[in-house]
Amino acid sequence: MTSVHLDTSSHLDATAAADVLALAGRAADADGVDAISEAFRLALTSARAEVSHVAAYAAQSRLVGYAALDAAGSAELVVDPDARRQGVGRALVRTLFASQQVAKGVWAHGDLPAARALAAAEGLVSTRELHVMARVVAPGDDVDPVLPEGFSVRAFEPGRDEQAWLEVNGLAFASHPEQGSITLQDLQDRMAQDWFDPAGLLLVEDTTVTAADGNHPLAASHWTKREPGSSTGEVYVVGVHPAYQGRGLAGPLTGLGTAHLARQGVDAIDLYVDGDNTRALATYRRAGFEDAAIHVVYGRPSAP
Fold first, then answer.
1. Which of 196, 200, 236, 238 is nearest to 219 (CA)?
2. Predicted TM-score of the model (pTM)
3. Quick one: 164 exposed, middle or buried, by C-beta within 10 A (0-12, 13-18, 19+)?
4. 149/234 same-domain check
5. Which of 15, 32, 99, 223 would suit a FRET pair with 257, their CA atoms being 20 to 30 Å apart?
């Protein structure tokens, strides 16, 4: 077992954040999947993020592992490929579950055999599944579907639509542990990324109702994402206001984003959806998406 020193902090400086990203890059090259999600990557350099960082250092201050825990109790960790099977992952897991702010669960992206073995050794069980679904772009995908009567679509306008989008997103994902807690600052952080394109955030409005300011109520939205230079697009966030669920928007809403990405020239499209969201899973499967991978959260088993 490698002797490691664990350093816990609420903020990382630029050098430490770069070291973590380099470590995550080495792990992704070895594993074929990213161990650190977008939210935790953004938290690496954000002084506003309520995240606890745990860095594992071996001899000569070499970073061999990293873990992060957010205010909601969600955690992620990564171990350098050259330092695995030496107790680093176990030390990080035990710190996460023994800290003052106890973790509710640790993500295992891709649910790799090593992650399953570590979870079993620590008595952790699967508490949540996130499906990664994908499909190739097919002929005709670039054509917008027809929305139900009384609805229209337009692109997001920065400076005008933030609050309306946040309201609908919060209602649509009221029970979702991550997406439902998105704040204005979180939204602005994502809008500041190099992949953000307001034309790819599609807003569906109820044109049968006009407010005093001349605007129509926001019924749903489909936020697409494409990293610069990537040939793969993403169904980033799809949300329908609860008052408009069951109105036939789900299928066309998915198709609007697919069409937008197809017109951008991507070859494939992927998305993420929780395993217990049976309605969304059914909608995406009807649209041709199939499971490509599954991410798992491991946590303590529930008390009998």
1. 238
2. 0.84
3. middle
4. yes
5. 32
d(CA 295, CA 97): 20
Instruction: In whole angstroms, give the CA distance from residue 51 to residue 62.
Output: 22
> Which of 166-180, 229-243, 248-262 has the weakest average pLDDT?
166-180
Q: What is the pLDDT of residues 43-54, one digit of tens each?
A: 998 776 689 999
pLDDT at 278: 92
Asked whether residue 144 is domain-assigned, the answer is yes
Residue after which a domain boundary falls, among 123, 143, 166: 123
Which among 90, 123, 156 is the end of a domain? 123
Using the predicted structure, report yes or no on whether residue 240 has a pLDDT greater than 80.
yes
Q: Is the Cβ–Cβ distance between 127 and 145 less than 8 Å?
A: no
Domain of 147: which CATH number? 3.40.630.30
Domain limits for position 249: 134-292
Q: Is the dihedral of CA 34, 35, 38, 42 positive or negative?
A: negative
Domain count along the chain: 2
In a domain, 303, yes or no: no
| Residue 59: pLDDT band with limits 50, 70, 90 | confident
pLDDT tens-place string over residues 117-142: 999 999 999 999 999 999 999 999 99
Give every CB contact of residue 42 below 8 A, 6+ residues apart in sequence.
Answer: 49, 189, 190
221 and 154 housed in the same domain: yes
The pLDDT of residue 203: 98
Q: Quick one: DSSP state of residue 37?
A: -
Average pLDDT over residues 77-92: 95
What angle (nearest 5°) sits at the alpha carbon of residue 42, between those of residues 36 and 46?
135
Q: Which two tokens stand for residue 300?
A: 């303590």
At residue 139, φ and ψ (nearest 5 deg) are -55, 135
Residues 34 and 93 in one domain: yes
Q: Is residue 297 part of a domain?
A: no
CA–CA distance, 293 with 272 (Å, rounded to integer): 10
* Exposure of 107 in the CB half-sphere (CA atoms within 13 A): 25
Co-location of 247 and 143 in the same domain: yes
Handedness of CA 10, 14, 16, 18 (dihedral sign): positive
